[in-house]
Amino acid sequence: MKLTALRLHNVRRFAGRGVAIENIREGVNVLCAVNEFGKSTCFDSLHALFFQPHTGTPSAVQALRPYSGGNPLIEADVVTANGQFRLAKQFYGGRRASVTDLASGRLVAQADEAERFIADLVHGGAGGPAGLLWVRQGVTGVERRSRGEEEGEKRARESVLSSVQGEVEALTGGRRMADVIATCEEELSRFVTPTGRPKAGGPYALALDERDRLTEEARRLEGDVDNLHDALEERRKARARLAEIEKPEEEAARRRAAEAAQKAFEAAKAHGEALQLAEAEAKLVRTRYETARTTLENYRALLARGAQLRERHARALAARDDALDRQRRAIAEGETALNAIEAAEADERETRELFLRLERAMRARDAAARLSNLKEGLEKAEDARNEIEAAEAALRARALPEEALQALERAEMEIAALRAAETAQAPTLRIDYDAGVAGAIAIDGAPLADGEERALAGVTTLRISGVGALTITAKRSIGEDKFSALEKKRRTLLEKLGVESLAQARQSDAQAKAKKSELELARQRFLLLAPKGVEALRDEIARAENQEAEDLELKGDPIDARRAHEAAEQNLTQRRNDARAIRPAREQADQALVEAEKALSAVASEVEGVEAQLGPEADRASRDAALAQEMAQAQAPLVDAEAKLAALRLIAPDLDNAQATLARTRSAMEAASKEAARLREQLADLNGRIRTRSDDAIEEQWREAVEAREAAEANVARFKREAALLTRLRDALNTARSAARDHYFEPVMRELRPLLGLLFEEATVVFDDQSLLPQSVQRNGQVEEIERLSGGMREQLAVLTRLAFAKLLARDGRPAPVILDDALVYSDDDRIEKMFDALHRQSRDQQIIVFSCRQRAFAQLGGNILQMTDWTPQA
Amino acid sequence: MHGMFRFLHSSDLHIGKRFGNLPEDLRGRLREARHTALDRLAERARAHGAATLLLAGDTFDTETPTPAILRQALAAMASHDALRWIILPGNHDSLVADELWDEARRALPANVTLAIEATPIVLEAGVVLLPAPCTTRRPGRDLTEWMDQAATTEGDLRIGLAHGAIQSFSEDNGACDVIAPDRAERAGLDYLALGDWHGQLRVGEKTWYSGAPEPDRFKHGKPGQALIVSIGGRGATPEVQPIETGAFDWKTLALDFLGEEDAPALLQALLPPPVRRRQTLLHIVASGRLKIAPRAALAAAVKAVEPDFAHAALDEEALATVCESADLDLIDRSGALRQAADALLAESVDASLPLGEREIARDALARLFAFCEATPQS
């Protein structure tokens, strides 16, 4: 189908008038006009003609009506395979629709038939041409539009694809596939959530819950059943035990055993008492016997002791006498020795005194000689001292302070220097006498010699004989003050030194130095004579004078005297040693005597004690006999008692054993009755427990629960498997369908690919099999949803897609116009030019009608330029 | 004895059994059927002129049945007061269950005898019963041994009553306490009435397992049965007549397919008559190989008849699916559905995949088939 003309009247701004666009041709047709010129009105009108039933007034139709009202009329001429037709629709008042065969002018269809005719054109009904492909201003073809519009376009696309690829249904399984998938999803959704988990409240989840519940229930019941069986087992045991305990013969045996044990115990107790008595008796008898025996033994021992002591007494007496004798001898020896010592001592004293006196006399002689020496030395020392004192006095008189002498020398030198300087500056005077008058001039009384040069200083008076006195006053060049100050200083120094002049001072100093060395010599001499001073010397002399008292006349050889004394001393020492040597013998003798006396007195007192105990000698034998008799008498009853005791002991039963047996048998009886009572109690408890449990039929419940759990387990497995198989099925179906879709869209992709290549490199498009429009674009490996693309790209894609579909239609022999209403508002110029290329590329066997307000941009498009002309509908 | 001695031999009533693995509403009916088995046994005994019923163990399902179960069972026995009931403790209700037997003794009706001791019981003049009650769940020895030495009057009938396995095929596996299979001969018994095996079984001409009067599992595949035993005299071969006593049938239908059978038709042919179905628990075990369509048809057929039955379940574990392209045509001849089916089929026979995944793929394919059946191709 191709459009050749469009006319409208009473549409929007064309109230009360009409416009027409004639001469629409094959290829690209462009209606380029500024906004508000009415091109969108043309587009909308054309759209309404094809898609809005003339009877209705939906918003799309209302939008066509001018503000002033009126009945929009739209007319279009089309060329189809069946011929040329004029389609006309009027809305609102006088609404109508008609199709006229242009060749014959025959009215082909009216009203609903006309609508069907138009619909067939659009939707490509059985055998008819396919619909139009529209892209509206700012509408990129992927946004939501009114359902009818959308459906219409979709069906148009579908018809294209179906015609080239077969029915989409046949490929994708269509409705049937959708139903199967829906059924599968529905079934699956009963069991699992979309993420594959058991769905809460679904049979799978319920089966799982049931399984868990039953597992828990079975576990709990199993516990109860075990408990019950334990109770039954316990009860069986308790009953068996009770029966055993309560068996009459057992009871009788226990009682018998207890009685026998009681008897045995009593017998043992009685025997024990008899034994105790016998033991006491035997003990008494034994004590008596032992006493008698001890008494006898003691007496005899005492007798023996008495004899022994007497003998010892005699020995002690003898020993004491011996000791006395030894002591007497020792005393005699001691006295002899003492006498010898006294004689030796006297001798020694004598020799010593003689020797000492000789020594003293010799020392006195030595001392007298020394005293005379000392006195001589003292005199010399005193002389020396006097000498020193005199020298010191002389030195003091002559000695000049060193610095004063030097100061004086300096002052002299300064004065001399000053004087020399003055003399150098002073005028000089010389007379060269004329002959004859030599010596006529005298200065200060002395004649001035011929040719003598004299310096003048101060006032000089020249007596010139025969002339008079010439006074020359030489002014001092150096200040009088300084000179007189120096003079004064020298005078002071001279005064201080007590000399007339420097020369005198120097002489005096030299004398002082000579004196000083004299003095030094004197001092050394003195020191030699009296190193500690004269006083010390005098003291020494005084001490020596005092010692002179001894007899100086005693004569004798002191060496002989000392030897005699040493011999006497030696003798004395010998005597004393002799005395010391015999002293221990004396001490020993004394000691031995004391010991002997002590031993004697001890034995004596003991003898006395024993004798007292033994009594008179005469009674002793009879006493011994009496005691022996007593012991023999005590022995007989002892033998009897012990024999009796041994007999009793031999047959004594073990009381502890008897008592233990008694306790055991008694406790066995008590334990039996206690245990019986306890068992009865336990049985009562167990009975209660068992009855409660078996009344609840827990064993049956348990088996039931176990079986039910198995069934639930099977159920779970079944549901799990069911979910798995449904999931598998769903995945298989989706995979197959999506593969089929790709296959289905292959033809349109084939058409689209070169067009896409014009604008985008390496881009592929995925189609949505519901809308049959691009769903996403894949570029550089990135998948982008159409909604996320830029406006420009979207509109370009929309146009290209339609061009691709149009191409498909054309190939199928059902060409259809592509109508673009400012479809490229977002695209930049560069893209627009590429789009123009695409349009022209497609336009070879394709009608493309472009409405645009972008005159300048679209000037490049070329193609058939459409014009709007006024049009008045035929009456 | 006066001529012929005739009695009813039954065992394993398992009164009180709960059937927790079956649907709730069915459980009550099954329990009730176990109780009313007593009435049915009594009725059959009367009908066959037997005045004595020997219950060879496991009369009760647990050692601790509720008082209601016990009392009501005893009351049911008492109500048939012309009959004499002999109850032997089995392994489920062994003598360890002293509460049970104490309580039974306390409430014992005059026409009920508890064979709880291994001592001869004179059933009537000239007929002596030698019972071997189970002392515990697993006694660990042959309890019938004492019968060899049990003295009876010359010429009296000796009838043994015991519970347990004669081989290691006990109902409660793991039997080391096996009854000598030739006990009847060894102990000179005229008949040995055995319990424990829930299916009826002839061990020898004088030794029988009666089987349970009311089945409780699919294992044996037979209806509930008991035995009417008639003994002409000492040493005579007993005449043993099986009789049906079950209220419910536990039926296992084994269907073995080769590929293309009309599975629903085969199933239909094997189903019990509708009137029995309410009392039938059906366990259909499909095995072999089956094409996808008949397989789906079988599942659908089972689903369709399921409400007729007390219980019906299809076990397809052992059934392999055969798939050919013609089968897949039933899903779709081409297009995405067919592709999905092809993919699942390939996966189901891909030996490199784990068995579990193969099975899931196989089931998914079967399910796809079922879904597609519900949405026919246009």
From TrEMBL, chain A:
Transmembrane residue ranges: none
Cross-referenced InterPro entries: P-loop_NTPase
UniProt keywords, alphabetically: Coiled coil, DNA-binding
Signal sequence, start to end: none
Coiled coil spans: 204-238, 341-398, 586-613, 655-729
GO molecular function, a single term: DNA binding
SUPFAM superfamilies: P-loop containing nucleoside triphosphate hydrolases
Protein name per Swiss-Prot or TrEMBL: DNA-binding protein
